[in-house]
Write a structure and sequence with these properties.
63% of the residues lie in helices and 12% in strands. By secondary structure, the protein is an alpha/beta fold. It folds into 3 domains: 6-133, Rossmann fold (3-Layer(aba) Sandwich), CATH 3.40.50; 169-267, Beta-Lactamase; 275-380. The strands form 2 sheets. It has a 5-stranded parallel sheet with strand order 2-1-3-4-5, sandwiched between helices. A 5-stranded antiparallel sheet has the order 7-6-10-9-8, sandwiched between helices. α9 packs antiparallel against α10. It is rod-shaped. The two termini are 98 Å apart.
Length: 381
């Protein structure tokens, strides 16, 4: 007959023990009987039971350790959660039965035990315990899956939020801060080097500085996109490098997941840095244009002012000439001497006007050269 189940049985009454063991063996059970807890302790029981144990039966009043203490000890040091414990005792008071369940009992039979009932109860109790264990395991797995799903959902949400908020980064220091905030949601510590200008911009989430860390991050760029050493992982992109200082290398599954998620987190940073550099270049260009425009506007105002003075001076000369001519004409008859005097006045006026005109033209030529140079520089920038 094939063995149905293996049982460890504690009973100090020899006649009762022999009767129960014989009945169970006849029904196909393998039984290891102990009249008391062995001196060798749990190890002695393990040596006697080479095969896996399916159930433990315990009397309460045993020599040495009582059944309650044995139950606790076996559960602490040996029995798995799917092995039931059945108490068989002549004690029938409620407090005795309650004490047994507090010690870890799964069922309780009052002596004298009916052998046929015992043969039927044992397989059912073993099956019930295994079903409870399987259900508990399934619930644990389901809870873990739910927790992992919620955790991954939270972390994926952090990735999506990060890609939204970095579009509002005001400068590179603000961008680094947003990167630290996002990485911190994964319970990770980080440093970042941004390659935005002639000198790298180095930031650390605890605001400290380490020249050795900066050198190692710079050197890691030559080792590819992802380089790991112990708990340190370096993620290098075109415009930046991120160092994670506390990767969970003892948890291989979590470690692999985090590497993928950090890559997802960082994939959009290069594009954001490039857009910020373009915006800064455009801003600098606009500032140069504004400065040049102010200079040109000032020159134009000066030209207009001098042109106004030129016009006023010219008009005044002509007016003076007309006044003088009128005065001469009133006082003199147009004899030769008077005519010559009039011509002299006219010639003086024309000469003065010519000099003023030539001076203005020279100034205009100089300004034209300056303005041409400024315009060329404006176009080049």
């Amino acid at each position: 007959m094939d063995c149905l189940h293996t049982i460890v049985y504690f009973e100090d009454e020899t006649e009762v023990a022999n009767l129960v063991v014989h009945s169970l063996q006849k029904a196909g059970f393998r039984v290891h009987h102990f009249a008391s807890f062995p001196e060798g302790g749990v190890d002695a029981i393990k040596q006697a039971c080479v095969e896996p144990v399916d159930l433990v039966m315990l009397d309460i009043n045993l020599p040495g350790k009582n059944g309650y203490d044995i139950c606790r000890l076996l559960k602490d040091e040996w029995l798995s959660e799917q092995v039931p414990v059945l108490f068989t005792s002549g004690l029938m008071a409620d407090e005795d039965i309650l004490h047994a369940y507090e010690a870890g009992a799964d069922d309780y039979l009052v002596k004298p035990v009916r052998l046929h009932e015992l043969q039927l109860k044992i397989p059912k109790l073993i099956q019930q315990k295994r079903e409870q264990f399987d259900a508990s395991e399934q619930a644990s797995v389901a809870m873990k899956m739910a927790f992992d799903a919620m955790k991954n959902s939270s972390e994926l949400g952090a990735i999506l939020r990060f890609h939204e908020v970095i579009q509002q980064a005001s400068d590179f220091a603000d961008l680094a801060r947003l990167m630290f905030d996002a990485v911190r949601e994964f319970e990770l510590e980080s440093s970042v080097v941004l390659l935005c200008n002639h000198e790298p911009l180095y930031f650390r989430d605890d605001e400290s500085k380490s020249s050795l860390e900066l050198e190692s991050m710079t050197a890691a760029r030559a080792k590819g996109r992802l380089y790991s050493w112990k708990r340190f992982s370096f993620f290098s992109y075109d415009r930046f490098t991120v160092l994670i200082r506390n990767m969970p290398i003892d948890d291989e599954e979590r470690y692999g997941t985090l590497k993928d998620q950090i890559c997802l987190l960082l994939n959009g940073v290069d594009a954001r840095i490039n857009s910020m550099l373009v915006a800064l270049a455009e801003q600098a260009k606009q500032q140069k244009i504004s400065s040049i425009t102010k200079v040109l506007a000032k020159l134009v105002l000066e030209i207009e002012h001098e042109n106004t003075e030129f016009s006023a001076n010219f008009e005044r000369i002509i007016a003076d000439m007309e006044t003088n001519l009128s005065a001469e004409l009133c006082e003199f008859n147009l004899i030769e001497a008077e005519e010559q005097s009039l011509l002299n006045i006219v010639n003086q006026a024309v000469t003065a006007a010519t000099q003023l005109f030539e001076t203005s033209m020279a100034n205009e030529a100089q300004r034209k050269v300056v303005m041409d140079n400024l315009l060329q520089k404006l176009v080049a920038d």
